[in-house]
Write a structure and sequence with these properties.
single chain; alpha+beta; three-stranded antiparallel beta sheet; 10 helices; 45% helix
């Protein structure tokens, strides 16, 4: 109990003293320093807002005139592809390697190497690569060579943009077994490859006949023409009738273009 002579504090002063804690009496005994300049962040100049506030320039025809765009350095993104080589195409690849890699390095500006242990051709882009589709073109070129196309025909895929490869099998057209399948393959090839060459010359495509798998290289319309002729031979049409249809369609294509 306080002494009767002690000064009593008013209730209002006591409430204010309890509401405002002392900065010096903290738990850690450290001094708290308050910097008034750190609370206000520095003002930033919004260049976009300033550019929007500028009046738009309009030419005599009423079209807006914009300032030229600035050259921005593109970030280098290295992409890599690996093309697996079939075992029966490793020997041709090794023998033709001095002719295969110069178009990839000189024309497409790619970095290429042949991984003999992994039986693959590895490609990747570099800082010298200009074309964004160079890696895809290089992969298509190597795949075309692995499928059995001649090196000159495969190189054409690097020079032209509208060349494609379509692959289908005999069983996709008609299910044949035994001698029936062998006779269908013989009808497509012809005696000494005569029928295959006729299809290639009439449709301006290149055809690779690998057992029951058929690969066709050419333009979109030309591939369609060659595929129709090959499907007719698989279904049993005589070669003479197919030759006549090819001549008719080829003459119509010449007149159209």
């Amino acid at each position: 109990m306080p002494a009767p002579t002690a000064l009593l504090r008013r209730p209002e002063e006591l409430a204010e003293a309890e509401a405002i804690p002392s900065l010096q009496d903290n738990d850690y005994g450290d001094e708290v320093s308050v910097d008034a300049t750190s609370t206000t962040p520095p003002a930033r100049h919004d260049t976009v807002a300033e550019s929007l506030d500028l009046p738009m320039q309009i030419d005599q025809e009423g079209r807006p005139k914009f300032s030229p765009a600035k050259d921005v350095e593109k970030s280098l993104r290295v992409e890599a592809r690996k093309v697996l080589i079939p075992p029966h195409r490793m020997t041709p690849l090794k023998s033709n390697w001095p002719t295969i890699y110069p178009p990839l390095v000189g024309h497409l500006k790619l970095q290429v190497r042949m991984n003999v242990s992994a039986r693959a051709v590895e490609m990747r882009t570099s800082s010298h690569t200009v074309d964004s589709g160079a890696l895809q073109k290089g992969e298509d070129f190597v795949r075309a060579f692995c499928l059995g196309f001649d090196l000159e025909d495969a190189i054409a895929m690097l020079r032209l943009d509208d060349l494609y490869i379509e692959t289908f099998e005999i069983k996709d057209v008609k299910t044949l077994h035994g001698d029936h399948k062998n006779r269908a393959i013989g009808r497509i090839a012809g005696k000494g490859g005569k029928t295959k060459f006729a299809i290639e010359n009439a449709s301006k495509t290149r055809v690779v006949l690998a057992d029951q798998t058929i690969h066709v290289l050419g333009g979109f319309r030309n591939i369609h023409l060659a595929r129709e002729a090959i499907c007719s031979l698989i279904l049993g049409s005589p070669p003479g009738k197919v030759y006549g249809n090819l001549r008719t369609v080829a003459s119509r294509m010449k007149e159209r273009f």
